[in-house]
From TrEMBL:
Keywords: DNA-binding, Transcription, Transcription regulation. Pfam families: HTH_1, LysR_substrate. It comes from Spinactinospora alkalitolerans. One of its GO terms (cellular component) is protein-DNA complex. The keyword DNA-binding applies. SUPFAM superfamilies: Periplasmic binding protein-like II, Winged helix' DNA-binding domain. This is DNA-binding transcriptional LysR family regulator. PROSITE patterns: HTH_LYSR (PS50931). Belongs to the LysR transcriptional regulatory family. The keyword Transcription regulation applies. Residues 4-62 form the HTH lysR-type domain. It comes from the Bacteria. GO terms for molecular function: DNA binding; DNA-binding transcription factor activity. Transmembrane segments: none annotated.
């Protein structure tokens, strides 16, 4: 039996994932001929056909190929962990760190996190995944991300989390709205006005629940997954909104002013959290991230975000 190499397995997995030898060649920075040669040698070494290769139709795994791909992923992953472990014995943080973050929190948190690891732990390969909290929680349980930054009120699955900083919803009004002159606004005073709300779940459902708890059915005229779009609609006097976070400057991309006001009503407690699956022990990289976030984004260090 011919010797099987780690490089052959890596090339095979690239083709299996991308479905194309040419695409795998671009990812691996080798020629398509080099990928094909590695696949031929791997198939000869194992004595089975791993994939069907057809011109203009890409590459499709056989039943044997699917089984080998599963084993190969474990081998490649374990080999990398061995390399990372050896480096960590020398006191270095190394390897991938996959961070999920609720979309609206990303501008507040991710740039500083990326800067911190780039400057202090350059051997950590930080990968960022942004999206709705429900999607991120599914990725977390599938092991596709290591941690998730989101709001505590968004937790729907069995997670352990650490609180980073408390937060509170605010009313967003146009600068010339009659209620903009108040320090605090009662939600009931907005019952007859149109609202534009964040369309990302579960934030969407939570905002509606808060408004209904004030004793009225909100008139939701628009939804958007983009906070800046919401701010621009509000700035034009077309609607109000309820949002977390307050960017510095209180102006939209167009330069129009908006007014953030504290909500007078009692609201459910909420916090920015960093979460990982219950029962899992945080790695050194994850613990470093947790410690950094709690120190950097605590209530006195996160203007515009914290309560």
């Amino acid at each position: 039996m011919k010797e099987i190499t780690l490089r052959q397995l890596e090339y095979f997995l690239a083709v299996a994932e991308l479905g194309s030898i040419s695409a795998a060649a671009r990812r691996c920075h080798v020629s398509a001929g080099g990928i094909s040669l590695a696949l031929n040698e791997l198939e000869a070494g194992l004595g089975v056909q791993l994939m069907l290769r057809r011109k203009a139709k890409g590459a499709v795994l056989t039943a044997a190929g699917r089984w080998v791909a599963e084993q190969a992923r474990s081998i490649v992953r374990d080999t990398k962990e061995l390399q990372y472990g050896a480096q960590m014995l020398q006191g270095r943080l190394v390897g991938p760190l996959n961070i999920g973050c609720f979309s609206t929190l990303s501008p507040w948190l991710l740039p500083r996190i990326v800067e911190h690891f780039s400057l202090n732990h350059p051997d950590v390969d930080v990968d960022l995944v942004e999206g709705p909290s429900d999607h991120l929680q599914r990725l977390l349980h599938r092991g596709e991300i290591d941690v998730c930054l989101m709001y505590s009120k968004h937790v729907e699955t069995d997670l352990e989390y650490r609180i980073i900083t408390p937060v509170r919803l605010q009313v967003l009004l146009s600068a010339d709205h009659p209620l903009a002159g108040l320090d605090e606004v009662s939600l009931n005073d907005l019952r007859d006005e149109p609202a534009v709300l964040l369309g990302l779940r579960p934030a969407r459902d939570l905002a509606e629940t808060v408004l209904r708890s004030a004793g009225f059915e909100p008139w939701i005229k628009w939804r958007s997954t983009n906070v800046e779009t919401i701010r621009s609609i509000v700035a034009r006097g077309l609607a109000y909104s309820v949002l977390m976070g307050r960017p510095l400057g209180d102006r939209t991309y167009e330069g129009l002013p908006v007014a953030y006001r504290r909500i007078k009503d009692d609201l459910p407690a909420n916090s920015v959290i960093i979460a990982h699956p219950r029962g899992s022990s945080p790695s050194a990289k994850v613990q470093t991230l947790i410690d950094y976030c709690r120190g950097e984004f605590g209530s006195t260090r996160a203007p515009g975000l914290s309560d």
